[in-house]
Amino acid sequence: MKALVYTGPGMIEVLDRPRPVIQAPTDAVVRLLHASICGTDLHILKGDVPTAKPGLILGHEGVGVVEELGESVHSLRVGDRVLISCMTACGACKFCRRGISAHCETGGWVLGHHVDGTQAEYVRVPHATLSLHPLAASIDSRAAVAVSDAFPTGLECGVLSANVQPGGSVVIVGAGPVGMAALLTARLYTPSLVVMVDLDEARLETARQLGAHATVNSGVADARARLLALTEGQGFDSVIEAVGIPATFDLCQELVAVGGRIANVGVHGTKVDLHLDRLWDRNISIHMALVNATTTPRLLRLMESGELEIGKLVTHNYPCSEGVTAYSTFQTAAQHQALKVAIDFSSSN
């Protein structure tokens, strides 16, 4: 089969690899229709994730068709079209029982990290019963790849962690795929004000199209003043950080209202300052998490009912043979006005 393989820091190649086989009774082998590239894949490509070794097939997002099932998998059938969750979950360990499947003792983030991932024509999925989700016929396969990771991350680590409430005010710092997912899922909770912040005017325009009440370019000199003015100087009830650099986390600390919540979603590669001298008496909370993907069934039901329209998030798609170009596009997303970049293995939906 063809696969996108991480061959060393800064290097990815389309290579021939053996098709995966069932290794445990709880496994499934899935034939990919579409995969997508995540920011975490770029961290691996840079060499920032030492646990991901050269020779690894990348990817933890995708939609495909079940080809083979282990003898213990009874909830799926060969031929089912399924969403592959970014997190695999055994459902029985102490972390899964607490709803923290990101830290599953034999699962969690393993695809494209510890075992070969989804950017290939076939993938072996451990713990298939809880890690694969059947797709309704009405759901578009390519659009659904955003529900593998970006949408549960935006909802769980962003919206729910930030306690978005009806009538509340929300600011999202970072208009990438996860920030946009946070915007769309925040609107399900009917806040009175949702504001998107980013440096990229094209992404801010997309945010307005997706329902942001206001947008602010964080590169302008008076960005902080503009943002606070939207709340009459009170700050925001829910502040979602979706970038992962010190400057954006600093901005979030400046924007949170008394009694508000900061939800950190971005992946931070360096330390940040926590301004307790300014925050200690404001009755705020700060929450950070790795996505557990427990909301995936709920998100798929919302898609099926038409209450969650995610089609605009996948902006670019390439065949597997052009996987290196797909990565280049995602690495220079602003230049290409790209959000999610899909890799296609079949034209079928």
From TrEMBL:
InterPro entries: ADH-like_C, ADH-like_N, ADH_Zn_CS, ER, GroES-like_sf, NAD(P)-bd_dom_sf
Gene3D superfamilies: Medium-chain alcohol dehydrogenases, catalytic domain, NAD(P)-binding Rossmann-like Domain
Cofactor: Zn(2+)
CDD domains, per database record: FDH_like_ADH2
Keyword Zinc: yes
PROSITE patterns: ADH_ZINC
Domain Enoyl reductase (ER): 10-343
GO molecular function, one term: oxidoreductase activity
Record's signal peptide: none
UniProt KW keywords: Metal-binding, Oxidoreductase, Zinc
Classification via Pfam families: ADH_N (PF08240), ADH_zinc_N (PF00107)
Residues in coiled coil: none
Family: Belongs to the zinc-containing alcohol dehydrogenase family.
PANTHER family: NADP-DEPENDENT ISOPROPANOL DEHYDROGENASE, ZINC-TYPE ALCOHOL DEHYDROGENASE-LIKE
Protein name: Enoyl reductase (ER) domain-containing protein
UniProt organism field: Penicillium argentinense
